[in-house]
TrEMBL record, chains A, B:
Gene3D superfamilies attached to this UniProt entry: 6.10.140.1330
GO CC list: plasma membrane
GO terms, biological process: regulation of intracellular pH; regulation of stomatal closure; sodium ion import across plasma membrane
Organism: Corymbia citriodora subsp. variegata
Reaction catalysed by this enzyme: K(+)(in) + H(+)(out) = K(+)(out) + H(+)(in); Na(+)(in) + H(+)(out) = Na(+)(out) + H(+)(in)
Membrane topology: Multi-pass membrane protein
Gene Ontology MF, one: sodium:proton antiporter activity
Keyword field: Antiport, Ion transport, Membrane, Potassium, Potassium transport, Sodium, Sodium transport, Transmembrane, Transmembrane helix, Transport
Protein name: Sodium/hydrogen exchanger
Domain of life: Eukaryota
Family statement: Belongs to the monovalent cation:proton antiporter 1 (CPA1) transporter (TC 2.A.36) family.
Length: 539, 539
């Protein structure tokens, strides 16, 4: 009882006790976040670094300093809490990704993204599970059953969409960004579904009925989550359009959008759906309708406030993972068998590489088969980047591993402790080493990525500065500047491939039924151009 | 142990567990916040209501519904947590108040504000303490000692600055707003200092040395807190000016400002200073320097994002107090002696009224003596409003009462339970009844408050919409539109009274030394007017 009590207290202390220790750790955390921002800014010109790596390294250094000052007793100010991560840090990141995503690019590649995110994750999970079954016994890890192996598969099938946002640039490589990031969002959801399914199904008696149930469960989860996100987004657009808050208070509009987005995530969690998918689609709908119904200042505010929240949450996560990595308690078991630990980490890294290769190349081939226009196909070089950029494992893997292999943040069994430290190793290694090499790899394989970038804006200027105050600044340039527009062949293909026909009917439907009710660009007074002309030009 | 354990768990559950109950309560909370925003918006035209009362009433109604559905077992989804309040909800409110305050108005009345906030609170605390010593024994409350009585004085001397923000309008009654709100900020700090001093000093042996120590402690705390806030604000201005983040990312600028503000609060808590004072002055300095160093979009974003955070935190607090008020456990003791409880609440309310009257009128008289210009004096009608508008007791009183009279959120002694329920009663009654009557009272006593309002902006248009995108929109109108400007007598007084001489030298100093280093209006490229001309016109 006392142990559990102190475990709970230590776990929650940074969140809500007035004891002086938690004030110290909050101070340290905020100061470190500030350091990450300033140092990340100073290192921005460096081609090898990105902000995730900066935050990770600062976190690791702080961990070392704390470890030394406390006499090797404790390096962590707080134990990694999956709830802090899933309830507070992840929603703003994913919502902002949906809010700022280039919708045309995303929906144009929707089928490919779904293929990668759903089938790809299944393939990856299967290969990793089979691999660990094969190798772990040889290494000397014997205490796991089939459920544990499948859980390991699900844990390491979860791409880190947060890190992907950092290494790929939406303006420089829009196709790759939308593919890898879109896949990451679907993949996060798939991994969480898989993981929960593995935890709840009786896996010693796999039969076709369970497999069917599992597939049905996935489709239910996917469609229900998407629907919930879309409905919440539409509701926010409707309320703001009807009540016209802007006349009275910008602050209320911003608060309403923020709270509705968060509500969509929490409602998904309430109904055991995928909050990540829900909040992502809520972000897309809000940027398509709600954002155009609010005042000028609300638009500037929401755009930057959501981006800032997401940025801070991302930095926080990496800092946190870095600081938590040195937790001495977990490494105590490992120090007795360092060989095993290194072997486990290496096997897992190799399986992550193999598992991702096993679906990126075949599924890209499949996806290319469906595309009639050669310009729309994914080239082999792009496939390599897709494979590489999705190799990073991050906080989702950490959170799932903690959920599976610890009780109340403490690790008691040797094999469990090794799994936790191996997860940390894989996360650190993949983020730092793979993340480090992604920018140079893109430069190597796509030497002139700028031919796919926006024409209007300077690529050196970051997204948020270019046209922050233009009413159409949010995605019109991006929507119009898809890589191959202007070339006759692709312009023709815009109307010949099935996806664009869907797009055409969607536009018709949107203009006829959705916009009059929910607003959106062209249905608000302050757009200078003709409403129909403008609205016809965008998704 | 088990009891303490479950107490801690239930207390923290909404913050960080993944169990389904906490997801349910988070959902309910976010939905209720949304309801408050929408209903508050619909009731905005109503002259009697304000958002605090709406949130309180919605909270109370929800509490009743939960009470009925759970079969009178529990009405609260979570127990009032002073840490949630002091660490997360209060800082954004006070920071935003400092950020948006009309600096000229505030500093012009600085001495009066200090007089009210420091001396006034001491007077009020003394009168309430003497009153409860006098009356409580007669009512039948016998278990308290001198320390408890003084603590009760400190608890009920804490004006609710959050509620003041809601009932007074900065544009309509700028003098009253700056006096009452400024007093509220200083008063909050004084109450917390008083309360902590009473908790730590041995009050059975009061001697001149302790009194001196106490006074010294107060002045140390006040000056150190102010200095810390000013230094943090200046540091943020310096960093942003030097690194010029705006060229790279608006999000970084906004994140930096937000985190620096929070860091100032947490650092004050770390050094046992008054976080409220620190973050208030940090807000003032940031709006004077830092805000002018950032990009256009950062300025719009910070202005509205801070206001939104503050608005949501305020609504949350009132909702929370409303929901917590019906906690059945606390009322169980009281139901055995309803007469005592009513008597205690009435005595406290009467003492609050008397304690405030005892310093507002004498100190206003003193303050008027120092003013040579009759237009600057506080009229008797204004004194009545100052007295009335500061009567509300809010979350600070609740938090202090919980700190004093409960252990881990549970009340075991009868007298302690009665104190908690009486605090709730006083808070609810003062907020609802006094808050309700403030707007009509102002209309009654100052029938034409608009002659003191801004000329440029429509008084019906809320603050955030009028000039949201003008570069000087933040406080230049307010600074120039002090009530009596334009009248020759007061224009003359601008240069004759000592306060204005201080202001004149400060402006000189600011232009010569501060602005070149820390930026500010006139020292950034995008101001159209001549820098010296513009900077000479404002504080």
């Amino acid at each position: 009882m006392a142990a559990a009590f102190s475990a709970v207290v230590s776990r929650l202390q940074v969140l809500s006790t007035s004891d002086h220790g938690s004030v110290v750790s909050l101070n340290l955390f905020v100061a470190l976040l500030l350091a990450c921002i300033v140092i990340g800014h100073l290192l921005e010109e460096n081609r090898w670094m990105n902000e995730s790596i900066t935050a990770l390294v600062i976190g690791l250094c702080t961990g070392i300093v704390i470890l030394l000052t406390t006499g090797m007793k404790s390096s962590h100010l707080l134990v990694f809490s999956e709830d802090l991560f899933f309830i507070y840090l992840l929603p703003p990141i994913i919502f902002n990704a949906g809010f700022q995503v280039k919708k045309k690019q995303f929906f144009r590649n929707f089928m490919t993204i779904m293929l990668f995110g759903a089938i790809g994750t299944l393939v990856s999970c299967t290969i990793i599970s089979l691999g660990v079954i094969q190798f772990f016994k040889k290494i000397g890890i014997n205490s796991f059953d089939i459920g544990d192996y499948l859980a390991i598969g699900a844990i390491f099938a979860a791409t880190d969409s947060v890190c992907t946002l950092q290494v790929l640039n939406q303006d420089e490589t829009p196709l790759l960004y939308s593919l890898v990031f879109g896949e990451g969002v679907v993949n996060d959801a798939t991994s969480v579904v898989l993981f929960n399914a593995i935890q709840s199904f009786d896996l010693n008696h796999i039969n076709p009925r369970i497999a069917l149930q599992f597939t049905g469960n996935f489709f239910y989860l996917f469609s229900a989550s998407t629907l919930l996100g879309v409905l919440t987004g539409l509701l926010s657009a409707f309320i703001i359009k009807k009540l016209y808050f802007g006349r009275h208070s910008t602050d209320r509009e911003v608060a309403l959008m923020m709270l509705m987005a968060y509500l969509s995530y929490m409602m998904a969690e309430l109904f055991y759906l995928s909050g990540i998918l829900t909040v992502f689609f809520c972000g897309i709908v809000m940027s398509h309708y709600t954002w155009h119904n609010v005042t000028e200042s609300s638009r500037v505010t929401t755009k930057h406030a959501f981006a800032t929240l997401s940025f801070v949450a991302e930095t926080f996560i990496f800092l946190y993972v870095g600081m938590d990595a040195l937790d001495i308690e977990k490494w105590r078991f490992v120090s007795n068998s360092p060989g095993t630990s290194v072997a486990v980490s290496s096997v897992l890294l190799a399986l992550v590489l193999a598992g991702r290769a096993a679906f990126v190349f075949p599924l890209s081939f499949l996806s290319n088969l469906a595309k009639k226009n050669p310009n729309e196909r994914i080239s082999f070089r792009q496939q390599v980047i897709i494979w590489w950029a999705g190799l990073m494992r991050g906080a989702v893997s950490m959170a799932l591993a903690y959920n599976k292999f610890t009780s109340s943040g403490h690790t008691h069994l040797r094999d469990n402790a090794i799994m936790i430290t191996s997860t940390i190793t894989v996360v650190l290694f993949s983020t730092v080493v793979f993340g480090f090499l992604t920018k140079p790899l893109i430069r190597l394989l796509l030497p002139h990525p700028k031919h796919t970038s926006m024409v209007f804006s300077d690529p050196n200027a970051p997204k948020s500065v270019t046209f922050p105050l233009l009413e159409g600044g949010q995605d019109s340039e991006g929507d119009l500047m898809v890589p191959d527009i202007g070339r006759p062949s692709s312009l023709r293909s815009l109307w010949t491939t099935p996806a664009h026909t869907v797009h055409y009917y969607w536009r018709k439907f949107d203009d006829a039924f959705m916009r009059p009710v929910f607003g959106g660009r062209g249905f608000v007074p302050f757009v200078p151009g003709s409403p129909t002309e403008r609205s016809a030009r965008q998704l």
